[in-house]
Amino acid sequence: MNRVVPAVLTVCAFQTATAAELEAGEWEFTSTSTSRLFPGPQTASFKRCIRREEAQNPDRWMADPGQGDCKVIPGAKTGDTYTWVMECPSAKMRGSGSARLSRTSMEGETNMTGEVQGQKFELRTKVTGRRLGPCKG
After folding, report:
1. Are 54 and 60 in contact (CB under 8 A)?
2. For the stretch 73-90, what's the b/e string if a residue is b when 16 or more beta carbons lie within 10 angstroms of its beta carbon?
3. What are phi and psi of 7, to 5 degrees?
């Protein structure tokens, strides 16, 4: 479970960053996850270069490759809002999320439920993001 949760948190962060069309460039995302499995809120920040073709079609980068068997099923895209459902069979997790954004900022939330050693749990991840400028390199 210790290796699965960070991977799921990364996927959740990417999911909340996908709606309508972001402005291409270097983005910084900060996610805060809470669950009774954690001693307290778990916060992580990371940067990602979002290329023009990715910004125009966020479904192309919704699921971060290498994150196990997690699958994202896109939902409604309306105005500045986007929804999805996510399943991670090997981690026995399932959930949904939504995001709202402008071209240079976003905020979203993913709620997952799962089971570890026969005990059910919930995982809530809130993410904010902001465009920093052009991609570096």
Report:
1. yes
2. eeeebeeeebbbebebee
3. -65, -45
Distance CA 98, CA 82 (A): 6
Give Cα separations from 27 to 7, 13, 39, 100, 110 (angstroms): 19, 12, 29, 15, 19
Residue 109's identity, in one-letter code, is E
16 has a pLDDT exceeding 70: no
Q: How far apart are the first and last CA of the chain?
A: 35
The pLDDT of 81-104, averaged and rounded, is: 88
* Mean pLDDT, the chain, whole residue set: 80
Report yes or no: 129 and 29 within 8 Å, Cβ to Cβ.
yes
* pTM for this model (two decimals): 0.76
